[in-house]
Specification:
Number of strands: 14
Mean pLDDT: 85
Order of helices and strands: HHEEEEEEEEHEEEHEEEHH
Distance between the termini: 88 Å
Shape: elongated
Strand order of the largest sheet: 1-2-3-4-5-6-7-8
Helix content: 10-25%
Low-confidence stretches: 4-8, 19-32
Length: 290
């Protein structure tokens, strides 16, 4: 065979291989279709605000499969998003009663996630348009609008304070009633902690549903209460217990002392006078604090 023909055939084979490689890479297979869907997305389904998150499953034995959850407007209840078997880009929307409330067909293009939401009956369809959001911002919309219920008011021979709660979750928080920048700073920190605890309880419930476990199996019971307060200091106790997967239960208790003048957490270890600190072994918990 002439060398010229051989060279031309080699060039043709090279171009063919290159074309096949690029074509196969561009195919909308399930893996590539979901390649950019991981993360938090915020936008609208029709005209209703929605927040979505897709991530690898945290349930042991799931093999890192992709799972999702979402909420509309400022709801504190997650809807599960479960991928339909054998249908790339399709996700079933499932409520707390384990009912399919809709079916999404989604595709992502960089920082844009679009598609359609279809009613289970097939008689209604809405467009989906969302954009990528910060990875840690899944709860931002609902927590910015959060208005906890006032469970009760108490007074421990000092400033009056409120105990806070939200529907369906066994999480309580506290807010001091008083004036001044210090009290305002303490309340801001207590609200941050209350929202962090609530986020943990919501996450625990969602994990339980993804694991197909009864609601009582995956639950967090978290409380904050003022155990002592005067004109200068407030001591807040935090209790938590429950199970959210893994080998052991999650439980604990601690207390934080706040300085009402500065609004900051007080280092109570500094309250120990010098003569008493020498007899405390350094290897103990109190010794570590000192």
């Amino acid at each position: 065979m002439p060398i010229r023909i051989l060279v031309l055939r080699l060039i043709w084979l090279t171009l063919l291989c290159s074309w096949l490689t690029s074509s196969l890479a561009a195919q909308p297979s399930e893996g590539s279709r979901d390649g950019c869907i991981e993360g938090v997305w915020r936008g609208k389904v029709g005209t209703t605000p929605v927040t979505m998150e897709f991530r690898e499953s945290l349930i042991a034995g799931d093999g890192g499969k992709l799972v999702g959850h979402s909420y509309y407007r400022e709801s504190l209840d997650d809807l599960l998003l479960v991928r339909s078997d054998g249908v790339p880009g399709q996700w079933k929307e499932i409520d707390r009663e384990n009912r399919v409330t809709g079916v999404f067909t989604l595709s992502c293009h960089g920082r844009i996630l679009t598609g359609q939401w279809h009613a289970p009956t097939g008689n209604k369809s809405l467009s989906v348009m969302t954009e990528a959001a910060e990875a840690t911002s899944f709860n931002s919309v609902r927590f910015e609008a959060l208005r906890p219920n006032v469970l009760r008011r108490k007074n421990h021979e000092g400033p009056l304070h409120e105990e806070l709660s939200v529907p369906t979750y066994r999480v309580t928080g506290v807010q001091l009633l008083g004036t001044g920048d210090g009290v305002a700073k303490v309340n801001a920190e207590l609200m941050i902690q209350f929202k962090d605890f609530l986020a943990h309880a919501i996450e625990c419930r969602t994990l339980g549903r993804q694991a197909a476990r009864p609601p009582e199996d995956y639950e967090q019971i978290i409380s904050m209460d003022v155990i002592a307060v005067n004109s200068r200091y407030a001591i807040v106790r935090r209790n938590w217990e429950g199970y959210c997967g893994g080998a052991h239960l999650d439980f604990g208790v601690d207390a934080i002392t706040f300085n009402l003048a500065t609004g900051r957490e007080e280092d109570v270890a500094t309250w120990l006078v010098e003569p008493y600190t020498h007899g405390i072994p350094l290897g103990t918990d109190l010794g570590h604090l000192l």
